[in-house]
Amino acid sequence: MAGMVNTSGKRKSAIARAVVKQGAGEVRINNIPINIYSPELARLRIAEPLTLAPDFAAKVDIKVNVQGGGFMGQAEATRTAIATALVEFFHDEDLEKTFRTYDRSLLISDARRKLPKKPQGRGARKKRQKSYR
Fold it and tell me: What is the pLDDT of residue 30?
């Protein structure tokens, strides 16, 4: 076990930075306790690594600072940061294997990004209709 671990997670344009240290199982996201964090869907997504490893999560305090993107992008970035931090803090290969088999994006940030808009269209793929008359 280390004294303190800093990790980060990314999803789209959201970046989460997590700090894990010895404690009593307190989890805060942008200074808001996880049990009152809203929306609920994002809270459940963030809590996934904590429910997969409750005995590890009870031994540490986790503070996450997240910015950019939408609420679900932030939730995904936060869960990646938390899972990576737990694995790094405890140096536990079984924990890493558990996270990896549950969902690979718990430990590896999702590299997918929004496709840039192209000319003659309203978005990345949509084009103006052609008339054949």
Answer: 95
Could you state, in chain order, the average pLDDT of each consecutive group of 10 residues for the chain (133 residues)? 87 94 93 93 93 91 95 94 93 92 89 88 86 78
CA-CA-CA-CA dihedral for 26, 28, 32, 36, to nearest 10: -60
Identify which of 57, 58, 81, 115 has the alpha carbon closest to the alpha carbon of residue 6. Answer: 81
Six-digit token pair at 12? 């789209």
How far from 6 is each of 48, 114, 123, CA to CA, in Å? 19, 27, 37
SS3 annotation, the chain: CCCEEEEEEEECCEEEEEEEEECCCCEEECCEEHHHCCCHHHHHHHCHHHHHCHHHHCCEEEEEEEECCCHHHHHHHHHHHHHHHHHHHHCCHHHHHHHHHHCHHHCCCECCCCCCCCCCCCCCCCCCCCCCC
Domains and their CATH numbers in the chain? 4-106 (3.30.230.10)
